[in-house]
Design goal:
Blueprint (H helix, E strand, L loop, with lengths): L1 E4 L10 E4 L2 H16 L5 H8 L3 E2 L1
Antiparallel strand pairs: 1-2, 1-3
InterPro entries: DUF1059 (IPR009409)
Protein name: DUF1059 domain-containing protein
């Protein structure tokens, strides 16, 4: 399972995104970033987020 902790991306947020693939995590992360934080995930930000995805 791939996971991304929102806090690791620099937000004061307990959100954790889990999915079976990195692409699925990034899709969910983009939706969460827009809805919860008003942030649009650019290709550059997506590249940074990929570095934070962990296998758990």
């Amino acid at each position: 399972m791939k996971t991304l902790h929102c806090r690791d991306a620099g937000f004061d947020c307990e959100g954790v995104i889990k999915a079976s693939t990195e692409d699925a995590v990034l899709t969910q992360a983009a939706a969460h970033a827009q809805e919860a934080h008003g942030v649009t995930v650019t290709p550059e930000l997506a590249d940074q987020l990929k570095q934070l995805i962990r296998e758990e």
